[in-house]
Structures are given as C-alpha cells and as structure tokens.
Known about the structure:
Elements: E1 3-11, E2 14-21, E3 29-38, H1 41-48, E4 69-70, E5 75-82, E6 93-96, E7 99-100, H2 106-109, E8 120-121, E9 133-137, E10 141-143, H3 150-153, H4 156-169, E11 176-180, H5 184-193, E12 199-204, H6 207-215, E13 220-223, H7 230-237, E14 241-246, H8 253-259, E15 261-269, H9 281-286, E16 290-293, H10 299-310, H11 314-319, E17 320-325, H12 329-337, E18 344-348
Parallel strand pairs: 11-12, 11-14, 12-13, 14-15, 15-16, 17-18
Antiparallel strand pairs: 1-2, 1-4, 3-5, 3-9, 3-18, 5-6, 6-10, 7-8
Domain Alcohol dehydrogenase-like C-terminal: 184-311
Keywords: Metal-binding, Oxidoreductase, Zinc
Family: Belongs to the zinc-containing alcohol dehydrogenase family.
Amino acid sequence: MSTMRAAVLHGNKDLRLENVQRPTLNENEVLIKIAYNGLCGTDASEYAKGPFMVPLSAPHPGSGHQGPTVLGHEFIGTVIEAGASAQEMLGKRVACGAGVSCGKCKMCTSGRTNLCASYYTLGLSWNGGLAEFAAAPKDICVPIPDDCIDEYAALTQPLAVGIHAVKRAGVVKGDRVVLLGVGAIGSFVCVALQKLGVDITAVDVDQKRLDIALKLGAKKAVLISKEIMPQELLTAIGHQSEVVFETSGAPGAGARALAITNQGGTLMLLGLNKIPQEFPFFDAVLREVTLQTTVAHVCKDDMPEAIQLLKSGVVAKLLTDRVVHLENAVEAFEDLVAGRASGKILVSPTHG
C-alpha cells in the first residue's frame, strides 16, 4: 500500500509531518488529491489548547476513530479514485463539506444533516485534508464549476457555515444586523448577508478586520475594547438591531450581544467557548429576544451557494492571508495561534 505526507495531531502542540498510509475507499467514497486545505480557529484550538474534539484517547461515537488524526476539514481537490458507487465523480474538482451523516436518522430525514445522531467531521473526528490525499463520502463532495479556480473555491466550507447561520437567523430585507466580531466566521457571515438588503454594522477589537468588513458589505464599523461594557457598546453603536450575530465566544460577549438586540429581535450565537458565562436571562425574557444557535452547515443546501459567491474571487482575495506548503504546516499553526495571520491560511501539498 502506498504512503503519503500528512500533518498528524498526536497531542497538545504535537503536530507531526509524517508518512502515513494512503486512504482506502468503500463503495460510496472518493479519493481526493488535495489542492488546498484552509486552517480555522477550531484547528488552532485543537492544536494549542486541546484536544477537545479530536479523539486521541477514546473512540469517537460517530466515526469510531481513536488515536493520532490527520487534521483539516476545509479542503478541496480533484477526485482521482472512486468506489464502485461513486464512479461518476472521477476527474471532478470538488469541495468537501467534511461533515459526515448517516442519512437515516430523524434529523437527517428532516434535512438537518449537521445534527445527525452519528455525525462526525473529517479532520476532527476522522482523518482529514491536511495531507496529499483524503477519502470522503461522495455525498459531501460538491463539484466546483469550471469558472471558479481552486484558490477561490478553497473557502467554500467556511462560507457555507456563514450561510447556514444567516438562514438560521431568519434575516429579512430591511433588517438592521450587527456582527459582534468579524474575524474568520464573522467575515463569512458578512459575505452571506451581502445580497439580502440589510444594514450591516461590524464590531471588533481589530481595525484591520473592520476595514475588510466594510469591503465585504458592512455599512458601519465600530472599534471597541475587549473590556467594553454592554451599555457602553449600545452607546457606541447608537441603536439596537433586529438581528445580532455573536461570533467571538469571548467572555461576556453574550451579555454584550443581548444589550444591542432589539426587543423581539434575534440573538444568534456562533462563538464557541467552553468556559461557563453569566447571561442576563431576565432581560432576554422580558424583551422576548429569540436566542438561536447554529453549528456547521447542511452540505447540499449551503455548499453550492457558497461556491457561487466565491466565483468572482473578490471574497478570496480579501480573506486569504497566504498559501503555505504542507511541509510548513506546523509553522502555519503557530502563526495562527499567535495571531500572526490577517486572514485564512491555505495549506497545499503542491504550492507555497
């Protein structure tokens, strides 16, 4: 059996470039020759603070995988091999959704595959795309059209997450929308909001992020300190809004987001933070604010829409920081953790 190069997580801050066995396929899977794999905040957390989701010490309940894991869940490439039931995918360039679902449980049959009873994610709970090759079920691989180049399409999966969040929030034309945090996921939510006819206010502690948000469609940018109090934030923005996306997960962010949410409005929580936080439910209940959460995306609904938004290249040019070679993946993780990346870092086995 042939081998390949891959970035394998063995433990906290223990990411190794190794020769590993090239994946084998079942009848519904395809083998993707990786063009690019994007790094995200989840990857950084698993590397620097985790593992939280990577099943190093116990089998994952969905995938059954346990032990060192090839990271990478934002990958694209070309199908070079296919199982018996996936032959139609041969030769196609594809973006992988990474989230694997059973297709049979209650959530799957209702269209919410991201909440599948046995859901798992390639690159987190099974081997992923920080490698020369990756295996994936054909149903989570979306063809990339000829008029969208690889480097643009590499942002498909994270943009699909933003699109899913916007759909969950029920945003309608004319809404005032605040993005509390316009880092990686906040920027993708901003892109997803672009053509909905809404008034977007971007809020962040980083002026560079705010400058990009304005180019992505935000009408107003508000620079804040990490210590700002809820009422101070409301004063800085000048009004409450129908929909607020809290994308940072930072301590106190939920309370700040509630303060700027309109009576009867929607507060959408995206940011992940495992540390318990206080939240003013009294205020939320009395003002009948809808508290919503969102996770991942629904591949068949959100991925094709993401590719269409990426075809022009405008988004990728604004949100991609650099391309690095797979052999330099550890250095890329260190830069991401240290805040030395102003956008998405793409890792490639052939470029960089």
